[in-house]
């Protein structure tokens, strides 16, 4: 068997890249289709690649695609010579055993690895006999998260050569109606723009992208190796009233709730800015820039506080002050003069920030604590669990803590756990020229609180996903899924909402439940942690999702390696052949590791409540928080 595929790592040279590309004379991708079907924001995408071995000897043929980080792979199949080889999702430990056996026979494992901010790479290969064909088929599923008032379906196309029969088909069905649909991304511009067809008819929309082989060489990021870029389908659904939308089928329901016609709530926001020595240079500059922009965006009835910290804590003002023009000018001057120095006392910084919000609590305002750091705690309290327990005690569920981890030297798991324990989320800020925009973009997501302390109540509903949300921000969305007791529609659905007969809501329920159990598993400890983990594992297996707790085992034709595919952690760049179960030594940071949900969107940053009966929702709004 001759190997024509050279393995590359993320740091590989361009030269190495060139040699991985299929040689026209060796094998040819004669068809490449991407088919996405979106129903109620739940996207199922199938990538089908058909390849022929043009040589008169057997060749190793590679399948190599990029999918959104947020997605769970649910199916992978190879069709070779009338045989189907299908991946099976197994518990990680079990897959590990098969993997070890394969390794002991000197075989390598397939893998999924992180690429950049939003994508993951899926890679596998198989040996195909002379003049034979292989079809690769990968299915992945994701629930789209609404941010900045829209949904975005990202489709990455990089078939590694111009393909005669290349197609992207997207079909969207939204019962509430599609208010707009746009196609963006690098592949939607210039020479490729006229390869796109978009049709929009009230509840349905279709996007077709059929570039010719010549067009595939002509776009900005394209060349002799064909296309390499994104097609991003951007859309939103119509929202007529405050009820949101409840869809149900086969005993399951999904409730999307995103009111936007509510008055904003003034906020009390405290920014905790790490100015330790490691922030030196561009990071501190970008932080200053972002902070100044953010201050400019505060509304006059907002109150804010600024704390910078290294080994010591510096309050700009001891108290929260109103965002009037005089205070803002002073604060911006302070921001312009933030200098990097010293170590990192995260514990004191968060405790003092929490204290500020506790002391200056204002009835009818939404309090928010935002921590920006680029490193581990190095002074004051440095025991991570102790810090988490101090912080939890200080915040006591009263407001959310958002943690922004700048770069890759942060212990992101620590920040993530601390956020989740305090009703917030953690976000990684990538060290890049647009870091200030990432910071500002995050702030904008939480800039307009519309509701606080949200509890969703479903009479006649059971096995609900998360129903309590600390705050709901304009442009975001609350999604709750569950099962309907005895499948009794009458007592459950408000009359104003159309009933869908489409299938698939049980998968939305499973997807949300798994994501939330993984969050829970991260923030809990002891027996509760085990329970959450076991439930997440059980559902991952039942619905065949490749999650951080499961792996997919792909058995290939006789005599070939077994592939074990596993979902990487945020920031992880595994080496080829890395075992599916985390090992401390393989970690870039050298820290002990644990199974943990990869950084994905979470629901805990959204929210709005209503009372017992869904059809009472609108009148209740005005009474609850003003
Ligand atoms: C895309 O997938 C859907 C759902 O499986 C299917 O109904 C449809 O025919 C597919 N479209 C194409 C062009 O293959
Ligand atoms: C097929 O293989 C034979 C012997 O290995 C070689 O002589 C011949 O040129 C090959 N034909 C093609 C089309 O590659
Ligand atoms: C919320 O967002 C919508 C849509 O972008 C906008 O029309 C509305 O004014 C916003 N509400 C507030 C209070 O800013
Ligand atoms: C859903 O709830 C019912 C009881 O209401 C319970 O019997 C069933 O096991 C639950 N299913 C799951 C998957 O948790
Ligand atoms: C959700 O909030 C309600 C009302 O505040 C409370 O009674 C309930 O215990 C909360 N549930 C969870 C799971 O936190």
Question: What features would you describe in this structure?
Answer:
The structure is a single chain. The protein is of the alpha+beta class and 626 residues long. The chain has eleven helices and 30 strands. The chain has an eight-stranded mixed sheet with strand order 5-4-9-2-1-11-14-13. A hairpin with a 3-residue loop joins strand 7 and strand 8. The termini are far apart. Bound molecules: 2-acetamido-2-deoxy-beta-D-glucopyranose (5 copies). The site of one 2-acetamido-2-deoxy-beta-D-glucopyranose (NAG) has 7 residues, from loops. This is Inter-alpha-trypsin inhibitor heavy chain 3. One of its GO terms (molecular function) is serine-type endopeptidase inhibitor activity.
Describe, in short, the structure shown:
With 626 residues, the chain is an alpha+beta fold. One 2-acetamido-2-deoxy-beta-D-glucopyranose binds next to loops.
SSE blueprint and pairings:
Elements: H1 14-20, E1 27-39, E2 42-53, E3 59-68, E4 72-80, E5 83-86, E6 88-91, H2 92-104, E7 111-115, E8 119-128, E9 133-143, E10 151-157, E11 165-173, E12 178-184, E13 196-201, E14 204-209, E15 229-237, E16 245-249, E17 252-257, E18 267-274, H3 282-297, E19 303-309, E20 313-315, E21 321-322, H4 325-336, H5 346-359, E22 366-373, H6 384-395, E23 401-406, H7 412-421, E24 426-429, H8 435-446, E25 449-455, E26 461-462, E27 468-473, E28 478-484, H9 505-523, H10 526-542, E29 550-554, E30 563-566, H11 617-624
Parallel strand pairs: 1-11, 18-19, 18-22, 22-23, 23-24
Antiparallel strand pairs: 1-2, 2-9, 3-8, 4-5, 4-9, 6-29, 7-8, 10-15, 11-14, 12-15, 13-14, 16-17, 17-28, 19-20, 19-21, 25-27, 26-28, 29-30
The structure holds 2-acetamido-2-deoxy-beta-D-glucopyranose (5 copies).
């Amino acid at each position: 068997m001759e190997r024509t595929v050279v393995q590359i790592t993320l740091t590989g040279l361009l030269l190495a890249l060139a040699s991985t590309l299929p040689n026209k004379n060796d094998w040819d991708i004669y068809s490449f289709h991407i088919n996405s079907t979106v129903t109620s924001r739940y996207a199922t995408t199938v990538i089908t690649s058909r390849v022929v071995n043009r040589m008169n000897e057997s060749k190793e043929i590679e399948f190599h695609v990029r999918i959104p980080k947020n997605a769970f792979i649910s199916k992978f199949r190879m069709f070779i010579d009338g045989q189907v080889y299908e991946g099976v999702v197994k518990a990680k430990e079990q897959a590990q055993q098969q993997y070890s056996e394969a390794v002991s026979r000197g075989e390598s494992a397939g893998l999924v690895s992180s690429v950049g901010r939003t994508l993951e790479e899926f890679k596998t290969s198989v040996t195909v006999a002379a003049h034979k064909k292989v079809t690769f088929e990968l299915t992945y599923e994701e629930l789209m998260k609404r941010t900045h008032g829209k949904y975005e379906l990202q489709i990455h196309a990089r078939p590694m050569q111009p393909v005669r029969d290349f197609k992207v088909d997207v079909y969207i069905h939204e019962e509430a109606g599609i208010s707009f649909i746009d196609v963006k991304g690098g592949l939607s511009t210039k020479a490729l723009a006229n390869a796109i067809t978009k049709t929009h008819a009230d509840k349905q929309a279709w996007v077709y992208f059929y570039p010719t082989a010549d067009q595939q060489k002509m776009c900005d990021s394209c060349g002799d190796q064909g296309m390499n870029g994104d097609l991003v389908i951007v859309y939103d659904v119509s929202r007529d009233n405050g009820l949101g939308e409840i869809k149900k089928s086969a005993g399951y329901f999904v409730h999307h709730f995103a009111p936007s016609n509510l008055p904003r709530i003034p906020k009390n926001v405290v920014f905790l800015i790490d100015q330790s020595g490691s922030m030196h240079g561009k990071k501190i500059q970008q932080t200053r820039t972002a902070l100044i922009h953010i201050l400019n965006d505060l509304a006059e009835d907002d109150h804010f506080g600024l704390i910078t910290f290294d080994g010591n804590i510096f309050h700009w003002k001891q108290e929260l002050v109103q965002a009037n023009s005089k205070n803002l000018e002073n604060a911006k001057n302070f921001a312009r003069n933030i200098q990097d120095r010293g170590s990192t006392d995260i514990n004191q910084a968060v405790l003092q920030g929490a204290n500020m919000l506790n002391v200056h609590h204002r009835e009818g305002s939404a309090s928010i604590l935002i921590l920006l750091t680029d490193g581990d705690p190095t002074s004051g309290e440095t025991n991570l669990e102790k810090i988490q327990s101090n912080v939890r005690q200080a915040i006591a569920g009263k407001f959310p803590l958002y943690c922004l981890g700048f770069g890759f030297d942060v212990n992101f798991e620590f920040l993530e756990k601390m956020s989740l324990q305090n009703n917030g989320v953690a976000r990684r800020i990538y060290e890049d020229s647009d870091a200030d925009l990432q910071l500002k973009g995050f702030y904008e997501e939480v800039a307009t609180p519309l509701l606080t302390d949200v509890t969703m109540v479903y009479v006649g509903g059971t096995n609900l996903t998360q129903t309590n949300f600390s705050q709901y921000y304009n442009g975001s969305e609350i999604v709750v899924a569950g099962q309907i007791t005895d499948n009794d529609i009458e007592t459950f659905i408000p009359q104003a909402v159309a009933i869908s007969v489409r299938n698939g809501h049980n998968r939305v329920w499973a997807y949300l439940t798994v994501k939330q159990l993984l969050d829970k598993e991260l923030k809990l400890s002891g027996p509760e942690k085990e329970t959450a983990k076991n439930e997440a594992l059980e559902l991952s297996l039942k619905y065949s999702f490749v999650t951080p707790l499961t792996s997919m085992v792909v058995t290939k034709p006789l005599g070939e390696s077994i592939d074990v595919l596993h979902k990487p952690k945020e920031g992880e760049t595994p080496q080829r052949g890395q075992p599916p179960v985390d090992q401390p030594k393989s970690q870039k940071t050298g820290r002990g590791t644990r199974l943990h949900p990869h950084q994905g969107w979470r629901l805990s940053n959204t929210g709005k409540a209503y009372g017992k009966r869904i059809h009472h929702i609108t009148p209740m709004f005005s009474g609850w928080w003003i």
